[in-house]
């Protein structure tokens, strides 16, 4: 059942987290940086087992790592943080009152042994424009400084949950050990080359949402809950529950598959032309992926990718101008819409020379 699955997947995720902490210097460097906690967090172990609490980190001297959640809201979320229930939510609220995805995230965070969780609907005051605006600016920081991000990759709304029953149609890798006398040859692994792309890119309701791309790109580690297994993504590797070797991460290894890991955490101000190309290629890949996503409010087109741009600007010293970079403006202006797909929006949202001025992939 789901609780067995949760336990099994938490054990696997804990192992991946340990491996990452112990043997990934890039990831370790990120998680040891000084950081500000988000304004509010959920304490997953409330006064009783059935309660969780909203904690204001400005009043409560909270320290320690926290988990974030990436998920689709869907039509409505009944329990939300509001001006009227703020005090009550700080005292403690019943976990059972939450949609399934949020309940699962609390349960999984507890299983990981982490005390705090950040979920937008419970950590940002939903009916306060002031709070929304203040927190939206910090969104990149919230995800970028989390210990790990949980992505409800297969759920189209907040009732979908994290854990899925076994999928009878899922194809698992097969390990073949050729018996060539008198020696044993190296094992051969047969696996679906589209395994990552199918679960993360193509059939994921979550990753079709524009805002989610920056959550995924900025988070140091993400556990993706897909329709048949959990997948892992950090700055140095990818893992899959049913594929115990490291998953290939770059274009050559994927033989042209577009499942490339976008990594913006180790950019430097380019000293040589070659170094300069790498982050510009990263940005082009980000823009291409991003423009294939949907936005509920099209006017968010530049805002929803702003935290990634801010991180790149801080690391490279280049100036960001409406989706393009000043140092290479002539090349940046050479973007093209995908054939028959790009169209101008009804309302102005960016200069006509920016890719953000059209709807559709570029």
Automatic annotation (TrEMBL):
Domain Heterokaryon incompatibility: 66-215
Protein name, UniProt field: HET-domain-containing protein
Lineage, uppermost ranks: Eukaryota, Fungi, Dikarya, Ascomycota, Pezizomycotina
InterPro entries from the UniProt entry: HET (IPR010730)
One Pfam family of this chain: HET
Lineage top rank: taxon: Eukaryota
